[in-house]
Amino acid sequence: MRRGWILALGALALAGCDGGEAPAGNAGGAAGPALAAAGEGARPPAFARCATCHATVPGRNAIGPSLAGVFGAPAGHEPTYAYSRALRDSGLVWDARTLDAYLADPRGVVPGTKMAFAGVRSAEERAAIIAYLETL
Predict the structure, then answer these.
(1) How far apart are CA 78 and CA 66, in angstroms?
(2) N or C terminus: which one in the chain shows less Cβ crowding within 10 Å?
(3) How many whole angstroms from its chain centre is CA 57?
């Protein structure tokens, strides 16, 4: 039974890796060379850790919610995903500042979030991820 559960979780995690094609977008701005090196509208390498749990296609949830349309949206905006009460009630709006803080320390920004991720330490990688999310 346990092996089946582990295989199912692995398959679910891999399902988030194929989030679809990203639309063309802003490759410059705050992300600088990290996103520019990846190409305009392309996923930056740092996004790989996000894609383990998140898709980028609207409505396609995996372990985490779809990140399509997340930039500028209120926290807990994806109607088909079961967010933690802490995140739903946080009052956050996902702009560059809040995304940067949350990506650096999810549990510090929203105590009680169910996002089991330690955070992205590199400010440059966070900026590249945020610039990419802005294109979705």
Answers:
(1) 7
(2) N
(3) 12
50 close to 67: Cβ distance less than 8 angstroms: yes
The whole-number average pLDDT for the span 105-133 is 96
The pTM of the full predicted model, rounded to 2 decimals, is 0.71
For the chain, the average pLDDT equals 79
Per-residue pLDDT of 27-80, as tens digits, reads 334 444 444 444 456 899 999 999 999 999 999 999 999 999 999 999 999 999
- What type of residue sits at position 133? L
Residue-wise DSSP of the chain = -HHHHHHHHHHHHHHTT---PPPP---SGGGTHHHHHH-TTPPPGGGHHHHTT---STT--SSS---TT-TTSBTT--TTS---HHHHTS--B-SHHHHHHHHH-HHHHSTT----------HHHHHHHHHHHHH-
User: Maximum Cα–Cα distance for the chain, whole Å?
Assistant: 49
Is the separation of the CB atoms in 113 and 107 below 8 Å? yes
Burial of 112 (0-12, 13-18, 19+ CB in 10 A): exposed
